[in-house]
């Protein structure tokens, strides 16, 4: 089954949005395969955001994501990568549609509440960065 990496960022945790965000994914019909509240070490943040290392906001990005606890998760379900991106809304919350997570809860691009993998390759890479294989619940599938 398709899996994606979803992370409530430090602003979302601080604003008590973890439950709201988990609830949205549960109601949609996706299945939580792993989840943990954690502080991200600087090295992990730099690796996670490696594709942005030449961007002018890279330093700000790493310092923000390491500024407080995040809630890292793996969700699974049919089409979960693309559907989660739709549920999150545009990267810049100012442009995100109302009804999406960023559209409902965010204002600034640097503090945009949530991160989600943008492709199957990113999902595999990000899940492996944050979780061990043994952390992922293997749900029994009905035949
Ligand atoms: P995320 O989906 O976590 O992936 C990369 C992040 O970079 C993105 O969300 C934004 O939070 C952040 N980002 C993108 N553009 C900018 C910017 N211009 N200034 C600061 N942060 C940005």
From TrEMBL:
<comment type="function">
    <text>Major role in the synthesis of nucleoside triphosphates other than ATP. The ATP gamma phosphate is transferred to the NDP beta phosphate via a ping-pong mechanism, using a phosphorylated active-site intermediate.</text>
</comment>
<keyword id="KW-0808">Transferase</keyword>
<keyword id="KW-0547">Nucleotide-binding</keyword>
<keyword id="KW-0546">Nucleotide metabolism</keyword>
<keyword id="KW-0460">Magnesium</keyword>
<feature type="binding site">
    <location>
        <position position="91"/>
    </location>
    <ligand>
        <name>ATP</name>
    </ligand>
</feature>
<dbReference type="Pfam" id="PF00334">
    <property type="entry name" value="NDK"/>
</dbReference>
<keyword id="KW-0067">ATP-binding</keyword>
<dbReference type="GO" id="GO:0006183">
    <property type="term" value="P:GTP biosynthetic process"/>
</dbReference>
<feature type="binding site">
    <location>
        <position position="102"/>
    </location>
    <ligand>
        <name>ATP</name>
    </ligand>
</feature>
<dbReference type="GO" id="GO:0005524">
    <property type="term" value="F:ATP binding"/>
</dbReference>
<feature type="modified residue" description="Phosphothreonine">
    <location>
        <position position="91"/>
    </location>
</feature>
<feature type="binding site">
    <location>
        <position position="112"/>
    </location>
    <ligand>
        <name>ATP</name>
    </ligand>
</feature>
<protein>
    <recommendedName>
        <fullName>Nucleoside diphosphate kinase</fullName>
        <ecNumber>2.7.4.6</ecNumber>
    </recommendedName>
</protein>
<dbReference type="GO" id="GO:0006228">
    <property type="term" value="P:UTP biosynthetic process"/>
</dbReference>
<comment type="subunit">
    <text>Homotetramer.</text>
</comment>
<feature type="binding site">
    <location>
        <position position="9"/>
    </location>
    <ligand>
        <name>ATP</name>
    </ligand>
</feature>
<feature type="domain" description="Nucleoside diphosphate kinase-like">
    <location>
        <begin position="1"/>
        <end position="138"/>
    </location>
</feature>
<dbReference type="InterPro" id="IPR034907">
    <property type="entry name" value="NDK-like_dom"/>
</dbReference>
<comment type="similarity">
    <text>Belongs to the NDK family.</text>
</comment>
<feature type="active site" description="Pros-phosphohistidine intermediate">
    <location>
        <position position="115"/>
    </location>
</feature>
<dbReference type="GO" id="GO:0006241">
    <property type="term" value="P:CTP biosynthetic process"/>
</dbReference>
<feature type="modified residue" description="Phosphoserine">
    <location>
        <position position="122"/>
    </location>
</feature>
<keyword id="KW-0597">Phosphoprotein</keyword>
<keyword id="KW-0418">Kinase</keyword>
<feature type="binding site">
    <location>
        <position position="57"/>
    </location>
    <ligand>
        <name>ATP</name>
    </ligand>
</feature>
<keyword id="KW-0479">Metal-binding</keyword>
<comment type="function">
    <text>(Microbial infection) Catalyzes the phosphorylation of dZDP to dZTP, when the bacterium is infected by a phage that produces the substrate for the synthesis of dZTP (2- amino-2'-deoxyadenosine 5'-triphosphate), which is then used by the phage as a DNA polymerase substrate.</text>
</comment>
<dbReference type="InterPro" id="IPR001564">
    <property type="entry name" value="Nucleoside_diP_kinase"/>
</dbReference>
<dbReference type="InterPro" id="IPR036850">
    <property type="entry name" value="NDK-like_dom_sf"/>
</dbReference>
<dbReference type="GO" id="GO:0004550">
    <property type="term" value="F:nucleoside diphosphate kinase activity"/>
</dbReference>
<dbReference type="InterPro" id="IPR023005">
    <property type="entry name" value="Nucleoside_diP_kinase_AS"/>
</dbReference>
<feature type="binding site">
    <location>
        <position position="85"/>
    </location>
    <ligand>
        <name>ATP</name>
    </ligand>
</feature>
<dbReference type="GO" id="GO:0046872">
    <property type="term" value="F:metal ion binding"/>
</dbReference>
<keyword id="KW-0963">Cytoplasm</keyword>
<dbReference type="GO" id="GO:0005737">
    <property type="term" value="C:cytoplasm"/>
</dbReference>
């Amino acid at each position: 089954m398709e899996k994606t990496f979803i992370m409530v960022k430090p602003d979302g945790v601080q604003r008590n949005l973890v439950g709201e965000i988990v609830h949205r994914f549960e109601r949609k019909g996706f299945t939580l395969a792993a989840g943990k509240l954690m502080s991200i070490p600087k090295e992990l943040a730099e690796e996670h955001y490696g594709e942005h290392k030449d961007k002018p906001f890279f330093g700000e990005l790493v310092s923000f994501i390491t500024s407080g606890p995040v809630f890292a998760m793996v969700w699974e379900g049919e089409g979960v990568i693309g559907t989660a991106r739709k549920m999150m809304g545009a990267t810049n919350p100012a442009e995100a549609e109302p009804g999406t997570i960023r559209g409902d809860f965010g204002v600034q691009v640097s503090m945009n509440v949530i991160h989600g993998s943008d492709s199957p390759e990113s999902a595999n890479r990000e899940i492996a960065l944050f979780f061990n294989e043994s952390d992922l619940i293997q749900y029994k599938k009905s035949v």
